[in-house]
């Protein structure tokens, strides 16, 4: 299942400048997802992170992971229309720089779920130019 940015906006509540997913390239709701995000060199954040040597802040990478997981989870009928809230971020590792102009690919899969509490954990990986750039687990509550 492929989705455009407009279709993504019909699933998750995020909007620019905080919408950090451009496309869904592949998805099986409740199982796994592959998304992309173009790192626009004109983003305001690069003025201060870092002048003369811009790099995507790690918190943006984590947010990309979370939003990809949000789409995966909110595409399930039981969570459709909910607001996804962070409960936890674990095992995050940054392995390679992500630079302005890069397009990253985010892979996420459902790792565990407590459906009775509407809480799920997804494991995610970010690839940049085909190389693993970051990994982590995000736990979300659908409210």
TrEMBL record:
Keywords: Lyase
Top-level taxon of the source organism: Bacteria
EC number, UniProt record: 4.2.1.59
A Gene Ontology molecular function term of the record: (3R)-hydroxyacyl-[acyl-carrier-protein] dehydratase activity
Similarity comment: Belongs to the thioester dehydratase family. FabZ subfamily.
Name of the protein described by the UniProt record: 3-hydroxyacyl-ACP dehydratase FabZ
Organism: Oscillibacter valericigenes
Gene name linked to the record: fabZ
């Amino acid at each position: 299942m492929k989705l455009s940015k407009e279709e993504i906006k019909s699933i998750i509540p995020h909007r620019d400048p905080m919408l950090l997913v451009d496309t869904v390239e592949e998805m099986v709701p409740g199982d796994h997802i592959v998304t992309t995000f173009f790192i626009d060199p004109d983003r305001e954040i690069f003025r201060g992170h870092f002048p003369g040597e811009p790099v995507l802040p790690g918190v943006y990478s984590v947010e990309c992971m979370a939003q990809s997981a949000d789409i995966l989870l909110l595409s399930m009928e039981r969570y459709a229309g909910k607001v996804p809230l962070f409960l936890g971020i674990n095992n995050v590792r940054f392995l390679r720089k992500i630079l302005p102009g890069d397009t990253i690919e985010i892979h996420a899969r459902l790792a565990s779920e407590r459906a009775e509490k509407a809480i799920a954990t997804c494991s995610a990986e970010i690839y940049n130019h085909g190389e693993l750039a970051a990994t982590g687990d995000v736990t979300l509550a659908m409210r």
